[in-house]
Amino acid sequence: MQAIIHPSILTGTIQAPASKSSMQRACAAALISKNKSIIHNPGHSNDDKAALGILRSLGCAWSMVNGELVVEPGNTFLNPIPVAHHAPLRVNCGESGLGIRMFAPILALSKNQIIIDGQGSLLSRPMDFFDDVLPQLGVEIISNNGKLPLKIKGPLQPKNIEIDGSLSSQFLTGLLFAFSASDTNDVRIEVNNLKSKPYIDLTLKVMRDFGLRVPENRNYQEFYFYSVTNSQPQTTNYIVEGDWSGGAFLLVAGAIAGNIVVKGLDVHSTQADKKIIDALKESNAKMILNYNEIQLQQSELKSFNFDATDCPDLFPPLVALAANCKGETRIKGAKRLTHKESNRAITLQDEFGKMEVEIILQDDDMIVKGANEIKGAKVHSHHDHRIAMACAVAALTARGETIIEEAEAIDKSYPDFYAHLKSLGALIQTKQLINQ
After folding, report:
1. Does residue 313 have an active-site annotation?
2. Under DSSP, is residue 199 helix (H, G, I), strand (E, B) or coil?
3. pLDDT tens digit string along 226-281?
């Protein structure tokens, strides 16, 4: 699909999308919970659908009732498969990095053999962590040279373990859920070089909201599980937060091209990408923060310095913002971008280069030179949802039209993105190509 975007002025009010980080964690918590769960404001991105598909593959019953996701209790996947049925269970995580990293340790609790697969860019992302860690916990694993598919057979047996947290905090999230779901004595996970700590705060909050056993967080270096079991509510009611990752694109769009109000973003959220507010403030964006809504208005913007090491998903909207700022913006944490849906540092450099925005990669820093005039161009998403959205936002202030190839990449996290921009007055056409 192509998205054709013309320079536009935005006005109006929009509701931020549901957080897939919150939604997917809620699905995992509901899976291991012993009681019924009702999840309000559920998301419908491709990653959210992949999480629901995993639950269904495991025999976990769920349904949509009046716009709410109802998940029935019963960890049937933990029950051994009868001798007459030797075929392993198969689970597909779609293209969700969080999905594979979070659910694999949970699935390893089962005595059944399970094959975990994915599609698209997920097939090339490194999973060596599981080859190293799962055998230490009593799990048999065969990977495809450190990549998908994974063939695992538990049960996972929690014990004191030390892991590396430098690649992604999502691996730790999976272990935290798995350890919480098991009946063990006191046990701890030691973590070295943990990145994206706010995402672990979100994981712990979801665990707490579902009444699961929550470890003591010892300065993000050790997570200690006591043998005491939390009493779970008969029914868990959980509200999926508004998504700061997707909302960041709306906020930047408002700061560079209009006068809009974005609703549904909790300024007290534990989501890492809430830090977009700090970048907007430093860039001199005209912004008013109210309870559960943020007003943005176009204004003259200046360059800024920002550390995105713990929130690497902010790089694409930050680049769109920096392209509209006077001077050179420096963003730290570029090394975290290698193993995303694309190598985002290189992809941002290439695609924004087509729009005459110069990006320099310097060790762990990304330097964005504010453009005197952004040029409309034909760009490519590289099947990366955040690249597509970043180019779309930058196109709002470009000279001439911008055409985004493989524009449907947004479906991974924010399928309503183009429609939401159009509702605010953006001049956007989407065109399905014949060969698709």
Report:
1. yes
2. helix
3. 987 666 778 999 999 999 999 999 999 999 999 999 999 999 999 999 999 999 99
- Type of residue numbered 109: L
Distance between CA 5 and CA 159 in Å, rounded? 53
- Give the distance from CA 349 to its chain's centroid: 22
Instruction: Supply angle C-alpha 203, 209, 213, rounded to 5.
Output: 70
Condensed to tens digits (0 to 9), the pLDDT of residues 352-399 reads 999 999 999 999 999 999 989 999 999 999 999 999 999 999 999 999
Distance separating alpha carbons of residues 419 and 407, to the nearest angstrom: 13
What's the pTM value of the predicted model, to 2 decimals?
0.93
State the residue for tokens 């057979």: 153
- pLDDT at res. 85: 56
Structure tokens at 183: 């009946």
Burial per residue of 424-434, b for 16 or more beta-carbon CB atoms within 10 angstroms, e otherwise: bbbebeeeeee
Check 313, 350, 365, 384 and give the catalytic one. Answer: 313
- The helix (run of H) or strand (run of E) holding residue 153 is strand 150-153
Q: Is 142 within 8 Å of 151 (Cβ atoms)?
A: yes
* Single-letter amino acid, residue 26: A
SS3 142: strand
The total of other beta-carbon atoms located within 10 Å of residue 183's CB is 8
Identify the structural domains of the chain with CATH numbers, from first to last: 2-17+242-431 (3.65.10.10), 20-239 (3.65.10.10)
Length of the chain counted residue by residue: 436
